[in-house]
Amino acid sequence: MNRSICMLLLLCGCEGYVTVVQPVEILGTIATADGHDGPVRLEVYQAWSGDGGLRYPMRFIDASWVSTPGDFTMSVELPVEEGEGLVLYGWQDRDGDETHCAPGVDDELSGAAVISETDVPDVVDGDLVLDSPCVGATRLFP
Amino acid sequence: MHTHGVSMVRTILPFAFLIACGPPPKGVDYRGTRLAVVDMHLHPGDWQQVPESTQGYLASRFPFPFGLRPEQVAEGVLTGEAILDQLDDAAVSAAILFAVYAPRTVGVATNELVLRERRADTSRLWGLASLPVDRWDESSEAALAALSEALDNPGMVGIKLAHAHMHFRMDDPAYFSIYDMAVAHDAPVYLHTGTSPFPGTRTEPEYTDPAYLEAAIATHPRVQFILGHMGYDFIDQRPGDADTAIDLAVRYDNVWLEPSALGSRGSDPTGTNLPLVLKKAKTAGVEARLIYGSDGPQSPGFAADYLERTLTALEAADYSVEEAQLILADNASSLFGIPTFKAEK
Amino acid sequence: MATWLLLTLAAAAADFQDQDKQGHPTRAVLLGGSGEAHWNAGASVGSPWTTVTVQRGLRGGWTPLAEVQAASFARWQPAVGVGKRWIDRRWRLTGEGTVGWTLQGDPIPFRGPAAELRVKGGRAVGRFAPYLHLGMRSSRTEDRVETVSGDILREEARWETTLTGALGTGFLLTDRVGIDIGLDLPWVHMPNPSIPGMHIGVQTGWGRNQ
Hints:
A: three-stranded mixed β-sheet; 51% strand; C: mainly beta; Porin; 2 helices; 62% strand
């Protein structure tokens, strides 16, 4: 009887796309190699996603702006059924155009920190050093 | 690959070929003259090598009921044989098939798959090879070696790159070794420019704006750069960076423009953007460096429909018969070193 | 021979215009509204739609019904409802309302309640019963984000509106059995485009015949 009710509820449930996530709190510090001030674009990636021939590193999850290098906190939701691990990437916007190294600009530093390539705790420390000018996120994955 | 806002009748029309009798003679009528057509942008593939999120995206845009069992539709349009059927229906003489390594977005169609599907008719199909670029610092040597091996095959006539899909910056010199490979093989390089509607693509200008390609274009004058989609903004359905793409073609003789997909029913619902960018190119004096591609097969009938829309746009932008013949076929033949095709009466 | 055939068909046509025959299962299912105390059932197969319907006539032209529609056997639409014959002379016009569910799996998952209003119209032309169905269906589901432990973080409603339609003709084979052929013209999940379908069906009935 209970099984029948369960089946009925399953049939009559109201369900579309379901995304299973792990909320993660990132507490960290951003530093630049030359100590320059200025807003930092902080991006969060899963280290790996996909299977077989479709497996790839650096799955983009979320991004936000941090007003200046130093301590930061960021909350993200990692879709755990679609990837694993956690990588931070950031770049500093020195000319205020919200674009990383527009043509003619070659001094906006970027950097990445691999927090984990597998399981991620609910609260993580993530220290990020920006020391590579004009390098995109995927190329900084080791 | 958008299909929103399309009326029922206009959607059904492309499927009329299903009840038509035999393929039409190769070629199209343009201003009273028969012209041959080469479609330089078609995608073979394997549905299982498309990420789930993109499978859902594609399925949601297939006409009902195709979206219910999209793998059946995909199998029916993505093989070499199916692409030949589409070419026949569109009266297109030949086509270039693209390899793609974009597991984040549209998936993977390997060089080997392209060469395999090309075997459906090697006198009408050629391929552009590609390569994976993830973990480039440690994998570039192997990736470039595999690309070189693919380009050694006479069926592979160029290289395909899509920075927004493959997530690498257009201006990062670390990847310029790909253009060096193009020089070594005398292979034109096709580059996706502009944004893309597919989930997972990068939308920032360093991945989409052709201005970021200038360093590569300027330092590789022997490479023929084909700016795919002419910088079109597929998200907001507007010309986007088309002016930048045209400006590069004005300033660099090794830049070609390919207006595929941007004029489709889904991406240009009002039908104004394709004529607009074609007019801009003509006004800028680079009309002879346009090259036709559709970005099909997408769904049954797309190749024919896009060709029809392109002819209408060429007419609206006042292209001459000679210019149209260059764009529709002859530029592809000379650029890729494939035979010259003639229209059938 | 030809004269005999014409006379036979004419006699049959006249026979099927009789009031008693207006309650024929084919007319009941395709034009809507079963005769009082009649049970009628219809089934159709086609591409992409397959449908099974059961209905029973009550006094005053009211007709409770249950149906299951399936598209490519990948989208299921079970429902119960009621119809009411508004006009029932040579022309018949029936209104129907149903409530049920829309069930669809990957890659476009959709599971949720649905409601549909439609009208069925047509007339008896000898043994033929040409018909037209027009309606509107709305379904709702919930997309959600949840934690590994099942806590729901966010839910967002997703609606799907469909204009339904069909056009065809029934043909009365015997007093209790008929068939039909028709075009299915639903515009599923507007404004996404839809391709028309076709079906063939069979209808039957039993119960008090008046």
